[in-house]
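Homework-ish question, so no full write-ups if that breaks the rules, but can someone show me the predicted structure for this set?
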Amino acid sequence: MAITAGIDVGSGAVKVAVMNIDDCRETLSAHYLERIRRRDVMEVVEESLAAALRDAGLRRDQLDYIATTGDGDVIPWRTGHFYGMTTHSRGALYLVPESRAAVDIGALHTRAMRFDPSGRVLQYQMTSQCASGSGQFLENISRYLGISIDEIGPLSLSATDPEKCSSICAVLAETDVINMVSRGISTPNILRGIHNSMALRVAGLLRAIKVEGTILLTGGLARDTGLSAAIADKLKEGGGAGVSLATHELSVQAGAIGAAIWGAFRHGKLAKQQEATRGIT
Amino acid sequence: MSLATQEAPMAAGELADLVGSATRLYEDLELKAVRDWKANDPARRAIGFLPVYVPREVIHAAGALPVGIMGGGDQIEIVRGDSYFQSYICHLPRSVIELAVSGRLGALDGFVFPSICDVIRNLSGMFKVLMAEKWVHYLDLPQNFDRASGGKFYRHEMATIANGVSALTGIEVTNERLRDSIRLYNENRRALADLQALRVQSPWLVPATEYYLLLRASYLLPPEAHTQMVRDYMRLSRTSQRHAQDNIRVMVRGAFCEQPPLGLLRTLERAGCYLVDDDFVLGARFIPEPLPEDGDPWQALIDGFLYKSLPTASKYDVNATKEAEVVQRARDVRADGVLLIAPSFCDPALLDQPMLARALDKAGIPYTSFKYAEDTGQFQVIREQAGTFADAIKLWGTK
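A: Not a homework solution, just the prediction itself:
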């Protein structure tokens, strides 16, 4: 049995998952999310881990492995680090066991990955460094429109005549939005237009990696109901037979959960190696 | 013992100071350290040399300080250097020209350009024109690895260097002086070998950036000062609070000439790779074993080059030892995988890569490859590649 923590340091938030894992069961003991909000990342990490451990009723020295992912490679006291594709795939598999692909839409990047039933990444694609189609971009837009982030999804779903928006460049898209506001386009129609343009890019990434079966949305924007609806529509438009889109209330924790699970795997493997070494000596 | 319960690694003040000194030397493109060394005695001379290998003992025995010229890295903007070269060659010669024409190499009294590739050969010609008042020598290293022909040729080449430097210092290279220099450089070889052994045994005690900074310092400091620095580092590092992380162990090949920026090394470590062997600053340990300290010192240097030097892309590999070496070395240092890296447009490194890859394939050793330049500033793609490579090895044992 292993008790592990997964820490996913994103551009906008730190996510922590504490897991209890034995041969036949993976149990999520606690999870915690804290937005960074221009604070020192290490302070947020310390605070988030402490909160998750408190919720799990554990002390830090009871952890067998602290696994980091995302930008968690800056944490010097980590046990090991795993790459985002690897952890989101494993986390997606934990949350939705039938999933065979995941789309991680975070504050700065969007990544699509296809994996096998063991969580091994088979193929992936990600957006370039452009911020278009990312959470940060959507957050900026919500600020221009004077609405909160939580309002984005429901408003987008109520759109009746979505406006077209640039799907290429965040700068152009922001200009588009300013023009739309001045032309009197309603907020729901603007938001759905943006969601549609983002969904177009996501659908492109998914097609590039030839997904089949269930796709889980992970990352911070997985909770955006308007975006998930737009992606589902775009997949249908692209003739996505045999493809279904899933979300999960813990989708945002997928990276942290995946890191914690892989941490437990490594803990077991290292223990076996140590035993073997002891046997030899 | 659980890895996760260990405390954050905190470098002791003394260790941080030492690494700080090495960092300042690395950043010293104005060669202030060399100017200071020369200021202590106006008769002192310093000779610059390019990668990969020059017999530093000969320059040292002639009373001069051998100083490695490793380019400007990511610290200078190339303004005039680009106009000297076509676009499809590596970055190093451009930044070396930039250093030269901006006066940063003014502390050096002469230059040795060892044979690496055509570009460096041409660079030596440019220096002869640009620095007409200084001594510039193109060192043709032997490509025949026997005493009778290659050895004889190399003895003549070393004598030319000895005479050239002696003319600047007024100090003749006697056998006694050369033996003394070999003795000092042997001490340095032993120190670097011990550092390498420590790194193989406990890579978390010797982060790649610090190891690299120590290597770079060897190209600016007198050998005895550098040996002391390496010994001090090992003592301090062993007593530091640094602890192991669950990283893979990798070996790096292909960075023997143009050097990777520090950011790239940090990126590789952050991506979960411990660098346990590499060919950075290769000239500093090109002949890893100590040379005989008695007998004919010229012969000791000749035999060292002909029979004990490491295989690398810029050296003619008459017995095809590179493939076997890369596999054996990976096994010796217990590398989980190999990073075959190469500076963009580096013909020697890129020509060797398929051969090394084939040998690694055959031996079942995972590898991945990517290119860099000394001034590469964006590491996201390399981070992804190294990260997925590390994950694949950690979780599935393959690439």
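Now go work out the reasoning yourself. Hint: Residues 203 and 235 of chain A are 6 Å apart (CA to CA).
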